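Quick one:
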Amino acid sequence: MGFEGIPSRAFAFYEGLTADNSRDYWHGHKEIYESSVREPLLALLGEIEDEFGEAKLFRPQRDTRFAKDKSPYKTYQGVTVGAGGSVGYYLQLEAAGLFLGAGFHAFDSAETARYRAAAADGRTGGALVKITDRLVKDGFELVGERVKTRPRGYPADHPRIELLRHRSLGAERRVPKSKVRGRKALTVVRDDWRRLRPLVDWLLEHVAKG
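Output:
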């Protein structure tokens, strides 16, 4: 079946799970999770996978082995579309609405080194500035792990020092549930990922490939 929308019960489910993150709550509402969260998201992704790639839904259980917080479940449903290696798009369904983004998370220092070399270069770094400026203007926030001062080997007065501070880089924004009723959710995800595609393409060219 095609995507028909994310039911309001999906957002209510996560409101309840946030208030009562217990196995009793989960098992008492598992049917709502399956019918109102998992199945609609799979249907939505089925309509855009041809354009963006195969998607993966993360498991709802938290890994609490080394965490102080022993809450057993995530208070959102996460989705990732890996465009290549550490680069990709992501989506979360949570109590407040949708959380959308794209970028790269460095799996090793070589990826960060490639990213910084490309960001420092006048041509490729200038292209990245245009991409990120456009995304910020469109309402996205630049995120990612950063050093506090400057990365080793780069001057503090480099014209792109803020981008060079990043060890990883992403752009993301939240969309309230009032803006994603019915098939609007599909339009929002597709349009935002299209806006994010220039960043993904830049990262694929300069970071994911050595």
